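Dear Dr. H.,

I hope your travels went smoothly. While you were away I took the liberty of generating a structure for the chain from your last submission, since the lab meeting agenda had it listed for discussion. I wanted you to have the full record in hand beforehand rather than looking at slides cold. The sequence, exactly as received, is reproduced here:
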Amino acid sequence: MQVYRPDDPVLADLASQWKSAYVHVPFCRRRCPYCDFAIVDESSSGGVSHADYVDALVAEIAMETEFGPLDAINFGGGTPSRLAPEQLARVIDALDRQFGLNDGIELSLEVNPEDWSEEFGIGLVDAGFTRVSIGAQSFDPDVLMALGRVHTPEMIESAVLGARACGLVSVGIDLIFGHPVETDDSWDRTVCLAMRAGADHISTYSLTVEPGTELSRTIALGAEAPDDDVQAGRYERFEEVAGRHEFVRYEISNHAIAGHACRYNLSTWAHGEYVAFGMGAHDHRRGMRSRNHPRPDRYIEAVHAGKRPRLGTESLSAADQERDRLMVGLRLAAGTPLTPTARRFAASQEGMRLIQAGILESKSGRLRVVKPMMADAVIREALSVSAVDC
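The corresponding predicted structure, in token form, is as follows:
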């Protein structure tokens, strides 16, 4: 199989044709102060067992119509590593029975460092997993405490080494930057240690303040909020160091060494189709976007009644789909093909202004954002263009 640079436009276009599945595993030891995801906080919630939830996942998968075979499966959360490898394998087997799995499929799992053990890693490989993404967030103990994490920097290193030793093909690290507790020196140490740890994929996310979270309430009471300018500087610092270590940015938040770009990520940002299972899961296929109940009781109740646990479904027009393709494609380093929609945006007054400012580039049949930290602003401008103009 040919190995592409993670930011190769050929790879991005191939990814748009891949079919993927997302499986949401909601269980967490406790809710982190910045988290607004659909989770089950096991420090305070009861009544939902891992076994019952896996049974519901398997039953929901069996309800899905024809789709596949699959090129990538991603278990996200929540904390998917709260499930045992045998339970994860049951879900993979159900996906295989329903859709089939292509040769060379990527099977990816988000893992918390404190959940890692040699036995767990061996179980993942036996279940067919090829990739893990380790939720490190930081290598600074003070930042980890501020983020509500329970692991230590040593646990991160142990998990990465363990994942390598048990034979997983790709090992990723996830980082969060910009907490007020974090300093420039702290971030530099985290980046340095992440590079030394031996991962071949690193995702970086700026700390965001979501309404209703513990973090938002703390800030409302007077705590210091994350600073946008500081976060921009931290991102640029990471970009600089990553480039020296052969990491290539292929999407705003994702960098990888050649051959280790996450298939599921690429497919999603290239507007590929995916089915999704579990409470709160969202999917996209055949011009439809659907979302599941975000509450575990409602989700399991619907599945037990033999119904898809849908909270809502939206039918997208051809124009809606092209807007979506433009929106997600502008996050890719490879950009998005110059479809008629993309051409009209590039030729609009705002598009031309962005091109002249060196923020947007129209070249070689693609439209791409040159300055990744400006991508969200560019996307907002693209979406603000009227249907007549775009």
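Two observations you may find useful: The two ends are 38 Å apart (CA to CA). The first strand starts at residue 19 and ends at 25.

With kind regards,
E. W.
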